Amino acid sequence: MLPQLTQDEVFRYARHLTIPEVGLDGQRKLKAARILVVGTGGLGSPISLYLAGAGVGQIGLVDFDVVTESNLQRQVIHDVPHLGLPKVESARERILALNPATHLDLYNEAFTVENAEKITAGYDMVLDGTDNLPTRYLINDVCVLQNIPYIYGSVYQFEGQASLFDAASGPCYRCIFKEPPPSEGMPSGVQLGVFGALPGTIGTIQVAEAIKRILGVGSSLSGYLLLFDALNMDFHKLEIRKDPHCRICGKEPEISNLSAQADEYQRERKQDGEKVVFIEPADLADLLDRKEGVQLIDVRLPVEHRISAIRNARLIPLQQLSMHLSELDDQRPVLLFGRESVLAEKAFHILKRAGFRDVKVLRGGINAWAQQIDPSIFQY
């Protein structure tokens, strides 16, 4: 039985109640709905705010990160007073300030193969606010196995995508993107950059799909991939079809449980090979001062190199590193750095597998260098 609305709720949702496709019964459906949002960043911000504003009764928020200053350019649910706090706590305060009647479930943890089924149990659908591919595959697979819709969104610089995946009646995410690409050479969300207004557009499209699904009105993006180019203000809709050979929703699925795919879901958090060797900023500075003949390699993108740089470092973006190995001397030390450490750690494994013996990663990347050695260059 659908919950009743209070007089205060009738006042609050009056602009919904007068829409024939919503009305009183539709608003009661929204109040009864339970939606999980994975990620409270760029996409998760508008998603969670507009779900709460629309009157969705129960919202789950999953995020293990904390609010940093660089988030505020696009993650509009957070603000300066909440810097350093867990994102789910920051989001909770903002959501309840908007709609105190919203019931929130907070999961201040990473969404992993170990907890995905437990967290998603009981929700009507999952909305994607993530920024990495392995988690996206995990969301898709747990939704297929639990027979609930997955509303997908992604953003990259000026470009965004959205769709609704429901394997019971149409394609799933794997029907289009069969498996994650190798994490090596894949730039991070920080490296890619995101136009600040873009997540607002894609996030609200995801919410519109969720609300229509709850109400049972209109046509959905199931069977379509919506592409948005904010730079040229272009929308395109591509038709997509269910893949009969899909590994999880095809006629003879290979994937029947999450544990069998554990390594795939952790590609960005796990690297095979030997343990990464780090060098501290002060030790690197000493080597450079002594002109030890090291090869200092910046694995960031050219646009990042223009923000800040270490003198005498050679720029070889991670995605191009494999093509330039012959230009490096495998008998001399190679020192790698990125914005922080993650990209350089990936570069470390590429070089080690290629036979380079003396490879180290600058701990904390160029931001640590700026903090500890050269405050004249920008941190970002």
Q: Given the structure, what is the number of helices?
A: 15
User: In which range does the helix fraction lie?
Assistant: 25-40%
Number of strands: 13
User: Order of strands across the widest beta sheet?
Assistant: 3-2-1-4-5-6-7-8
Q: Kindly provide the radius of gyration, computed on alpha-carbon positions and rounded to a whole number of angstroms.
A: 23 Å
Fourth-level CATH superfamily of the largest domain: NAD(P)-binding Rossmann-like Domain
Q: Ranges with pLDDT <50 over ≥5 residues?
A: none
CATH architecture group name of the largest domain = 3-Layer(aba) Sandwich
Instruction: Provide the CATH top-level class of the largest domain.
Output: Alpha Beta
Mean pLDDT over the residues: 94
Q: Assign an overall shape.
A: globular
Percentage of residues in strands: 15-25%
H and E order? HHHEHEHEHEHEEHHHEEHEHEHEEHEH
Structural class: alpha/beta
Distance between the termini: 51 Å
Task: State the major sheet.
Answer: 8 strands, mixed
Classify the fold: give the CATH topology of the largest domain: Rossmann fold
Domain count:
2
